[in-house]
Amino acid sequence: MQSAGNTLGSAMIQFTDVSVRFGERQVLKNISMTVPFGETLAILGGSGAGKTTILRLIEGLVQPDTGSIMVDGQEIVGLSEQQMTHVRNAMALVFQGAALFDSVTVRENVGYRLWDQGTLSEKTIESRIAESLHFVGLDDIAEAMPGELSGGMKKRVAIARALANHPRLILYDEPTAGLDPINTHIVKELICRLHGQEHVTQIVVTHDIETAYQVADHLIMIHQGEKIFDGTVSELKMSTDERVQAFLHPDAVLSASDEGVYSAAR
C-alpha cells in the first residue's frame, strides 16, 4: 500500500485561533492545533463539545468565523467548493455509522470513489479494492451486501474504502462507537497499523478514552468549545485541570456528588 510521501515533522493540519458560532451558540473558541505529517491526533471531549465540527472544518463543509486553517500547506478558509475538491481528494472520512451504500456490494462500496473520479484504469481500481480489503482482513466478502455484515465488519469496510483512495489524511468520527470489545480492538489495531506501517496522518474524534490512549501520538481535549488540553497521553493522565480529571474519571465525580448529597441529607 502506498504510504505518505511527506517529511515527518512538518504540519499536515494547522489551526490558528479558529472560532465558530452557530446562531447564538459558540461552538469553537480560538482553537489552535498542529497535526504533523504521519502522526495520529485524538480529539477528546463530551457530546456537543465541538469535536465533529473540527472535522467538518477540515473538510471545508463549515467555514470559521475567524481564524486560519491550513491543510497540507494550503489555506482552505474561503476556498470555493470547486477549489476544495482538490484538497478533499487527499483525505478520507470514516463515518461513525460506516455510511455504506446498502444497494451495492462491498467491492462496489470500496471502489465507488475511484470509479467516480474516473482517473484510474479498471485494473488499477480492482487492485486497490483487493489491496484495501486485504489490509482490513476482509478479502473474502467482496461480493457480500452491507446488510449481511456485522457492525464491526461494516466499519472495517469503511476503513478499506478510505484506504482505496490512498489518502494522506484520514478523519475518523467515533470509530469504535457501538462496537463490541473484539471489533473495537480490531479497529484500534487497524488505526495503529496505518500509523506504524503506512505513516498516514490521522485525526480520531472520540469520547472513548482507551481508544485515544492506544492510537494517539498526542491528544487535545475540547470542553464547551475551548481547548483545555494539548499534549501526550502521559501528560493528559497527569493533568491537574479539574475539567480534564472529570472527563477521565467520571466515577470520581459521581462519588463526590453522592457524598455531597449524603452530607446535605444528614
The CATH H-level homologous superfamily of the largest domain: P-loop containing nucleotide triphosphate hydrolases
Output the structural class. alpha/beta
User: Strand-and-helix sequence, N→C?
Assistant: EEEHEEHEHHHEHEHEEHHH
First and last CA, distance: 65 Å
Shape: globular
* Count of individual domains: 2
Briefly note the CATH topology name of the largest domain. Rossmann fold
> C-alpha Rg, in Å?
20 Å
Please bin the fraction of helical residues: 40-55%
Task: Indicate the low-confidence ranges by residue numbers.
Answer: 2-9, 261-266
Oligomeric state:
single chain
Largest sheet: 6 strands, mixed
Give the beta-strand count: 10
The order of strands across the largest sheet is 6-7-8-3-9-10
Describe this structure in words.
The protein folds into two domains: 11-90 and 167-265, 3-Layer(aba) Sandwich (Rossmann fold), CATH 3.40.50.300; 103-166, no CATH class. The longest helix is centred in the C-terminal third of the chain and has 16 residues, at 181-196. It has 266 residues and is an alpha/beta fold. Residues 2-9 and 261-266 have low confidence and may be disordered. The strands form two sheets. The protein has a six-stranded mixed β-sheet, with helices on both faces. It is built from ten helices and ten strands. The protein starts with 10 loop residues before the first strand and ends with a helix. The protein is globular. Helix 6 (181-196) links the parallel strand 7 (169-173) and strand 8.
